[in-house]
């Protein structure tokens, strides 16, 4: 199950085979007009916290080794260490809530392109293959924010090799992207995205299984008021 383990953070990913499809991955990017900004990445397993807490008392379940809190924290620390060495990335922080099983990493960037390939590289260090590639860019002159998303075909192939009970873990799992801006949003090209009432944020929510299977594309071009 390692190959398709969904998308962003990593710390609780080893627990996914034991869950009941109740977890969410959240990506938040706050962009300033000068091109700098902040990122918060979250994995939230709180809806399954009682089951997760019980599982973590065991050594293994159904052939899967259950990671200890120390192992999860170690993987989080390794991701933080990598980010601190990454070009254009500063103010790296992390938090792990083992009562509600929520993990977050936050950091600032000089240019949104600084976050390109970061997730892929962190996953590679954990010997986990990414399920997609995402390239971000922001044109300060035209005030256009872009995300180019491309699903990796082998992810779908490997996902389809899973046992039905393992696939079921992802049925209700969600991925949410939230992009916030200083200027007003005048347009968003992805029809699945929603612009907030304030016109300063764009949100898109999808099922993780749909992302893995290529049924939804989260690419987007967001135009800001000049």
Summary, kept brief:
The protein is of the alpha+beta class and 226 residues long. The chain contains 6 helices and 13 strands. The protein has one domain (2-16, 25-224).
Key attributes of the depicted protein:
226 residues, alpha+beta, 7-stranded mixed beta sheet, 4-stranded antiparallel beta sheet, globular, disordered N terminus
In total, the number of strands is 13
Give the overall pLDDT as a whole number: 80
Number of helices: 6
Structural class assignment:
alpha+beta
Protein name: Lipoprotein
Keywords: Signal
Organism: Pedobacter kyungheensis
Signal peptide: 1-22
What does this structure look like?
There is one protein chain. The protein is an alpha+beta fold and 226 residues long. The protein has one domain (2-16, 25-224). 21% of the residues lie in helices and 35% in strands. The chain has helices at 49-55, 69-84, 118-125, 153-160, 164-167, 208-212; strands at residues 24-31, 37-44, 60-61, 64-65, 89-97, 102-109, 132-139, 144-151, 174-181, 185-188, 194-195, 201-207, 220-224. It has a seven-stranded mixed β-sheet. Strand 5 (89-97) and strand 6 form a beta hairpin. It starts with 23 loop residues before the first strand and ends with a strand. The model is unreliable at 1-14 (pLDDT under 50).
Question: Secondary-structure map with pairings?
Answer:
Elements: E1 24-31, E2 37-44, H1 49-55, E3 60-61, E4 64-65, H2 69-84, E5 89-97, E6 102-109, H3 118-125, E7 132-139, E8 144-151, H4 153-160, H5 164-167, E9 174-181, E10 185-188, E11 194-195, E12 201-207, H6 208-212, E13 220-224
Parallel strand pairs: 1-9
Antiparallel strand pairs: 1-2, 2-6, 3-4, 5-6, 7-8, 8-13, 9-12, 10-13, 11-12
């Amino acid at each position: 199950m390692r190959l398709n383990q969904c998308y962003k953070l990593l710390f609780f990913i080893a627990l996914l085979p034991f869950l009941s499809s109740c977890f969410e991955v959240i990506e938040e990017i706050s962009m300033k007009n000068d091109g700098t900004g902040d990122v918060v990445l979250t994995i939230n397993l709180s809806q399954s916290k009682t089951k997760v807490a019980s599982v973590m008392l065991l050594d293994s379940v159904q052939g899967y080794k259950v990671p200890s809190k120390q192992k999860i924290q170690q993987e989080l620390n390794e991701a933080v260490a990598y980010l601190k060495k990454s070009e254009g990335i500063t103010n790296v922080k992390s938090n792990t809530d083992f009562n509600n099983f929520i993990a977050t990493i936050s950091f600032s960037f000089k240019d949104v392109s600084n976050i390109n390939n970061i997730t892929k590289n962190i996953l590679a260090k954990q010997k986990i293959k990414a399920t997609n590639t995402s390239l971000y860019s922001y044109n300060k002159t035209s005030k256009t924010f872009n995300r180019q998303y491309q699903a990796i075909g082998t992810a779908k192939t490997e996902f389809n090799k899973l046992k039905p009970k393992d696939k079921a873990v992802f049925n209700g799992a969600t991925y949410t992207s939230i992009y916030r801006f200083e200027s007003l949003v005048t347009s968003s090209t992805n029809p699945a995205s929603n612009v907030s009432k304030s016109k300063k944020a764009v949100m898109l929510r999808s099922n993780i299984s749909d992302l893995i299977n290529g049924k939804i594309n989260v690419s987007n071009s967001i135009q800001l008021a000049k």
